[in-house]
């Protein structure tokens, strides 16, 4: 029988990407923690970093809190990346 493809929610993908960006755990440990392949973790991390600037491009004023959360995440990612490089 054919196995159906797993679909991950946005919150799960964000959790995995942030865990990878934090760099507290190795890739192997994250793989075991979230039961996801290491290639997917690397892809999610790269996509998160590339698309983080889009989080601030809100069109309505109602998304102000989301904007603040996104800005906090971007600052956190920026800080972690500076520590790595």
From TrEMBL:
InterPro entries: Trp_repressor/repl_initiator. This is Transposase. It comes from Aquimarina addita.
């Amino acid at each position: 029988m054919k196995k159906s493809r797993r679909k991950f929610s946005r919150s799960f993908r964000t959790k995995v990407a942030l865990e990878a960006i934090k760099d507290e755990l190795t890739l192997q440990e994250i793989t075991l923690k979230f039961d996801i392949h290491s290639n997917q973790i690397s892809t999610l991390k790269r996509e998160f970093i590339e698309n983080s600037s889009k989080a601030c491009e809100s069109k309505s004023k109602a998304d102000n809190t989301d904007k603040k959360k996104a800005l906090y995440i971007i600052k956190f990612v920026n800080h972690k990346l500076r520590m790595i490089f």
